[in-house]
Amino acid sequence: MNEMPAILRLAAGAAAHAANRQGVIATNVANADTPGFHARDMNPFVVDDGFQLRRADERHLAGTSRQSEVFKLRNAAVDPNGNTVDLEDQVLRGIEAARAHNQAITVYRNNLDILRTALGRR
């Protein structure tokens, strides 16, 4: 069996997404005083299991994957130098990303423990 179980792929994907989000937030904090810098964030993690939306009419919009899209924060207060980074907001977003990462790692670790127990390697 060479393929990783679905739950482990899901946990690994969630952890990778949270780590990437931490990188975006760290870039925001690093540029908190950069004139004209716009704060960014990532869309929430979504399970991408290959499900595609069907269109009943060609004029309807097709669904797109939004898992790792980075976007500029809207409705953010703008400093006189054009910067939109709010450090308090970035700290809260960082905490949220850290919790998501810890949760994904816990799921991953617990499932590995279950697999080890099932194999008698505990």
Tell me the count of domains. Answer: 1
Q: For the residues shown, what is the average pLDDT?
A: 85
Distance, first to last CA: 20 Å
| Helix fraction bin | 40-55%
How much β-strand is present in the residues?
Answer: under 5%
Can you characterise this structure?
It is found in: Bacterial flagellum basal body. This protein is mostly helical. The protein has one domain. Helices cover 47% and strands 5% of the residues. Helix 1 runs antiparallel to helix 2. The radius of gyration is 19 Å and the shape is elongated. 14% of the residues are buried.
Set down the secondary structure blueprint:
Layout: H1 6-30, E1 40-42, E2 70-72, H2 87-118
Antiparallel strand pairs: 1-2
Helix pairs in contact: 1-2
Keywords, separated by commas or semicolons:
single chain, 122 residues, mainly alpha, two-stranded antiparallel ribbon, cell projection, cilium, Flag_bb_rod_N, flagellum
Concise overview:
The chain has 2 helices and 2 strands; from the N terminus they run H-E-E-H. The chain has 122 residues and is mainly α. Strands 1-2 form a two-stranded antiparallel sheet.
